Amino acid sequence: MSAKTIAVLTSGGDAPGMNAAIRAVVRSGITSGLRVMGVRRGYNGLLTGDVFEMNLRSVSDIIHRGGTMLYTARSPEFNTPEGVQKAADQCRRLGIDGVVVIGGDGSFRGARDLTGAGIPCIGIPGTIDNDIASSEYTIGFDTAMNTAVQMIDRLRDTTESHDRCSVVEVMGRRCGDLALQTGIAVGATTILVPEVPYDFQKDIIERMQFTQKTGKKHFIIIVAEGVGHVAELADSIEKQTRIETRATVLGHVQRGGSPTLRDRVVASEMGFHAVQLLSEGKSNRVVVMQKSEIIDLDITEALQMTRTFDVELYKIAHKISI
Ligand code: F6P
Known about the structure:
Elements: E1 5-10, H1 18-31, E2 35-39, H2 43-48, E3 51-54, H3 81-94, E4 99-103, H4 105-116, E5 121-125, H5 141-161, E6 165-170, H6 177-185, E7 190-192, H7 200-213, E8 219-224, H8 230-241, E9 245-249, H9 261-279, E10 285-290, E11 293-298, H10 299-304, H11 311-320
Helix pairs in contact: 1-9, 5-6
């Protein structure tokens, strides 16, 4: 059965571009003759019934805004069989017969469980980490990278003026994509990611000393959050090289700000695709990008995929930033 009333929610960490996805879901839903409900604060909103009907104007002036107009949350209660059942019962009570979930893998597990409890769900990948195995791109990644690059360019000015080394932590608990791309773009001497083990002497100290001999006097080391310990690393680097070293954690600034063109466009396409799937009576699908195309996969299969890190690009980064 195809959905007549659909709901949209954002769940997990927010990401720039989520608003563009919400806008696409609402507008394409309504123009296809569906009723569209907004759910506040992720699955929590389904549990508490914090749901409101949206119209074409509910999503005006949000395409350029970071964050999510629906707010977001991680919901421990929903992560239990009783929670899923309660959310499904609420959907039935509210007449919701399809849900679009914008978030990461954790949110997709919720979407799979809610589908299992009788409410068809479609996932859209939204997270700045780009850590969803089934999709080569996640909404928010491009904006976060560009924000990180802007911040590190500023850091570079002062690092260079003082002949210092800056050790910079960028987000990414399990995934080094943000660190890798950002590291290339800022010309980092070394990039540390959770996917590749590193040797402190060989990968940091020796590289710095080698480039020092060629005349280099300031250094940027990019560290993914999943590797961490930037303060300790900075201390050890300073002790060994006698180069003044500072640690900077970029943190949540990377999650905010106006989404880039890429995030707005991909989010719009994915939102449209998700509504089409629900209109066609499909469920338990996740909208993904593969080979630059927007396609959809079974959520359960998508969740079983394993991510591959771009080791070749990692090698290139270290070959040219010397
Ligand atoms: O959304 C992904 C992410 O930003 C990760 O990079 C980071 O590890 C995590 O979320 C931080 O979560 P929180 O906002 O709960 O501190």
